[in-house]
């Protein structure tokens, strides 16, 4: 069926997935039969490299939940992951052909359905891929959906997205998604750790985000984050740090309407703009 084209970032390239397979809600069946042995091998090699990097860099909740994804030698079947995920937090994975527009995306999240791209990158894209594939979506995002507090945060984000859409505030809200769910850092008792999926699925950015002296790391603050632009094709120059998932959940409990109102027309921060004065 015909679906709206998906607009994402600055890229002019059309998304690669086959949207003719998708229904009105943009979900499709996971095309498991389409995976080749080479695809399974790509997944196995990505999983192996990335899981080896996690100790000392990934949040403990992520490390603890990773085995719940199941198979590491082959691409998992969503149905099978869902048996465990639904039991843990009442979330479920749904397959999609790739990036989907805002409203269907928010609607799925608000209903505790997490869209996972069902195709995998080519071997040439092993180290870097511009758009999310199954490895990013599954390995990066799904382990923390087993954490009850984080899982509730993602649902609340979906509900907030639908509201933001009505208020013309999606750009501000999407920055919060970017700097938490995709590129968030958390201060744990053992030290700084990554919990954002964009970091956890990247072999280069995982050590960089936690250890490099180059980027600035600011305490997460709603207004600052929602005013900060981001780059989709380089390592981040600014990361925002939380102390716990509970803090993230509590910070986002309030009605954002007055915040959006107050922020409209205020200047934005560049992705790499330094904020020496801002302290926790
Ligand atoms: N509480 C926000 C609102 O009222 C929604 C939101 C929740 C945003 C969670 C981000 C994360 O709009
Ligand atoms: Fe993602």
TrEMBL record:
Top-level taxon of origin: Bacteria
UniProt keywords, alphabetically: Iron, Metal-binding, Monooxygenase, Oxidoreductase, Phenylalanine catabolism
Gene3D superfamilies on file: Aromatic amino acid hydroxylase
GO annotation terms (biological process): L-phenylalanine catabolic process
Amino acids binding Fe cation: 136, 141, 182
Record's catalysed reaction(s): (6R)-L-erythro-5,6,7,8-tetrahydrobiopterin + L-phenylalanine + O2 = (4aS,6R)-4a-hydroxy-L-erythro-5,6,7,8-tetrahydrobiopterin + L-tyrosine
Involved pathway(s): Amino-acid degradation; L-phenylalanine degradation; acetoacetate and fumarate from L-phenylalanine: step 1/6
CDD domains linked: pro_PheOH (cd03348)
Molecular functions per Gene Ontology: iron ion binding; phenylalanine 4-monooxygenase activity
Family named by the database record: Belongs to the biopterin-dependent aromatic amino acid hydroxylase family.
PANTHER family per record: AROMATIC AMINO ACID HYDROXYLASE (PTHR11473), PHENYLALANINE-4-HYDROXYLASE (PTHR11473:SF24)
Name of the molecule in the record: Phenylalanine-4-hydroxylase
Protein source organism: Acidovorax temperans
């Amino acid at each position: 069926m015909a679906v709206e084209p998906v607009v994402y970032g600055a890229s002019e390239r059309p998304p690669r997935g086959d949207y003719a397979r998708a229904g009105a809600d943009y979900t499709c069946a996971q095309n498991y039969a389409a995976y080749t042995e080479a695809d399974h091998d790509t997944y196995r090699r990505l999983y192996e490299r990335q899981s080896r990097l996690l100790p000392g860099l990934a949040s403990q909740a992520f490390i603890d939940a990773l085995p719940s994804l199941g198979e590491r030698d082959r691409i998992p079947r969503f149905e099978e992951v869902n048996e465990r995920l639904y039991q843990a937090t009442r979330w479920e994975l749904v397959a999609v052909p790739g990036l989907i527009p805002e409203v269907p995306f928010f609607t799925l999240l608000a209903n505790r359905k997490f869209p996972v791209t069902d195709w995998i990158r080519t071997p040439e894209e092993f180290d870097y891929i511009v758009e999310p594939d199954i490895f990013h979506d599954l390995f990066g995002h799904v382990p923390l959906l087993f954490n009850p507090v984080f899982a509730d945060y993602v649902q609340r984000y979906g509900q907030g997205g639908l509201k933001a859409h009505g208020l013309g505030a999606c750009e501000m809200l999407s920055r919060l998604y970017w700097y938490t769910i995709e590129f968030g850092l958390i201060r744990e008792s053992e030290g700084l750790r990554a919990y954002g999926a964009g970091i956890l699925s990247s072999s280069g950015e995982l050590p960089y985000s936690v250890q490099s002296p180059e980027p600035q790391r600011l305490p997460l603050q709603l207004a600052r984050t929602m005013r900060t632009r981001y780059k989709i094709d380089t390592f981040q120059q600014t990361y925002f740090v939380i102390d716990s998932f509970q803090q993230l959940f509590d910070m986002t409990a309030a009605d954002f309407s007055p915040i959006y109102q107050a922020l409209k027309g205020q200047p934005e921060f560049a992705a790499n703009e330094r904020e020496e004065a801002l302290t926790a």
